[in-house]
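Subject: complex prediction, re-run

Hi both,

The earlier run crashed halfway through, so I resubmitted it with identical inputs.
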Amino acid sequence: MEVFERIELRRFVGRELLLWLWFESEVFEGTLATKPHGSFGLWLEGRLVLSAGQEVTTIKGTIPGQHREAKEALLRGKMPDLASLHISWADHDATLTLKAETLAISGLKLPRKEPDAAPTGEGTTAPPRRAPRRRAAPAEAAAELAAHEANEDLYERMRVTREIEGIVEALYRDFLALRLGPAWSELVMPALEAWTLGEDVDSDDYGTARTKALAAAGKGSPRK
Amino acid sequence: MPALRGSLTYSRFFIDTEQGEVPDDFREKYMRAIRLRAMKPLEAHDDDLERCGWCKLAEPFELELHYDDVFCNEYVALGFRTDRWQIPGPMLKARVREAEAAYLEKKGREKLGRKERTELKESVARKLRKETAPQTRMVDLVWSMNEGIVRFFSHADKAAGNMTELFHKTFGLRLVAEAPYTLATRLGLTKPQEAAWQEIEISVLAKEAS
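This time it finished cleanly. Structure:
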C-alpha cells in the first residue's frame, strides 16, 4: 500500500478516534487519563456532527453526545465527522472542535491568560526578549513595545496550543495502541456496541482491561 | 484568520524531512528568501488575476519585513496574503455589452470576431480594475521550527494549496497536510502497528442496516 493510500484510505481512523473519545468520556464520566498528563477532564460539548455519505446529523447542545439522536445516528451507520470537546486540565479549561478526517482544529478557545503565568511547556524556552534601545523616540518606543507584546502574546498562545495538542496526541497514541492491536476487537468493539445500544458498560472492568491492553502494547496509560 | 487574538482555527502541516532540511544558517537565508517572496500588490495593468506573497503576521499591508517581524524564538511568523481581482459578473457583462455596441458602431459593422470580443472584454476588465481595488485576504501562519510543524490559520483547501506552493518556493521545503496516518507515524508506529494499519477496516456499529 502506497503512502498516499495509507493516508487517503484510512481517514476513517479519525472518525473512530472521535467515537472512542466520546465513548470513553461517557464511560469514565468525563475524566480521562494519559501517561504523560495524568487525569484530566474531557467531554463532548457544543456540537457533534455525524455522517454517512450524504446523510448528515448535526446535534448541538451542552452535552450533544447524550442526545437520543446521537446514538440513533450511530446505529444507522453514521460516524462522527467532527466533535466539539471541552478539555479541563491543571486549572485550565479550553474548548475546541476536532475534524475527524484531517485532525484540523477550529474554534480553539484558549484558557484566559493569567497574569504572571510562567511558561512550563516541554521543549520551550523563555519568551523572547529584546535588548532596550538607547533613547528611542516616543513613537518608536511605543511601536517597539507593541511589537514586543505581540511577540509575547504569540509565544504564549502557541505554548498553550501545543499543550492542548499534546493532550489530544497522547489520547490518539493510546487510541492507536488499542485500535491497531487485538484489544480493539476483543475489548473496545464489544464495549462500544453495548454502549451504542444503551447498555451499561462497567467502567471498572473496561478500565482495567484497557490498562492491561495498553501495557501489553507497550504504551500504557494508568487509569485512576 | 488571526493567530494573535480570539479563538484559533487552523490546519497543521509538517515538514517532509525526506524532501529537504532546514540549513544551519537558516535565519539569514530565510530572511532573504522571505523578502524575495514578499507580497507584490496587484496592479490594474498586471496580467495576473491573483497573486500570493508574504506579509507581516496579522498585518496584510505591512510588506517590508524585518527580522524581528518574522522570527520569534523558535517560531517563524508570517502572514500569507492573497490579492485577487473580483469584478462583479453582471457589471462586467453590462460594460462589455456597451463597449461592443460602441465598437460596432464605430466600425460600421454588425458582428464581432472571436478575437475582437476577447480583446474588448480584456480591455473593459482592465478599465474596471482601475476603478476598483483587488480583494485582499490574509491568513496567519506560524512555523514551529522545533516541532517541524506549520500551523496555518485557515481550513480552506485553495488557500492551503497556494500556501504550500509559496512555502516550497521560499524555503525549499515540502509541507504535508496532517491526517490520521501522518500523525500516527509521527507519534511512532511499531512494525506490527504499521502492518495492522494497512489491514484495518472500518468498524461497523450499525445494527439497523438491511
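The radius of gyration of chain A is 21 Å.

- K.
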